[in-house]
Write a structure and sequence with these properties.
Number of strands: 0
Radius of gyration: 28 Å
Order of helices and strands: HHHHHHHHHH
Strand content: under 5%
Number of helices: 10
Structural class: mainly alpha
Shape: flat
Amino acid sequence: MQESPFTKTEREKIELYLKGKTPLRQIGRWLGRNHGVVSREVKRNSKRDGVYSAVFAEALAERRRRTRVGRKRKLDTDDLLRQHVIAELNAGKSPDAIAGRLKERPLPHVSGHTVSHETIYQGIYEGEGRWMHLYEHLAKGRDKRQKHHARTGRKTHIPERISIHTRAKDIDNRTTYGHWESDS
C-alpha cells in the first residue's frame, strides 16, 4: 500500500518537531504515519547541510511531481528497442528472456540499449502494449497483471488431529512396542 504524499502542514509540523529534538517515531505517531515514512521524508528532502525545512521540502516534492508527470517509458521513447521487444514477444519469448538476451548481446544497431524485464511488463500492461494486446503473447495471456503477495504463515490442517497432551500414560512410559519416538 502506498502512503499518501505529505501535505504542506505536515511538513511544517515535521520541521517544528525536529527543531524541538522530537524522535522520528514520536513524530510518526503524532502524524498518524509510519516512522520509516517520516524518516525517508526527512532524508530525501533535507538541505545539503542536513537541516529539514518545510518550504524547501515542499519545493523539492513539487519539482519531482512535475517531472514525473511528463516522463515517458523507455519503450515508448526508443522505437528500435520497442520494435525489437514486440518482435521477440511475437516470437513467443518471455520478458525475462528478452531482457536477459539484451544484456548478453545488445542490439547491433543500438549500442548499449538494454531494458529490464519489469520495464517490458510495464510496457505490456500499462503502456502502448496494452492497446496492442501484447499480453496475449505471454505464457498466461492475462489482460491484467497478477499481484504477488508475501506468503503468510499457514497452519497445517490435519483432520481429526489429537494433541500430544491427551495421549495415554503408558505411551509416556515407553513400555510397549511402537511407542518410541525420535527425530530422523
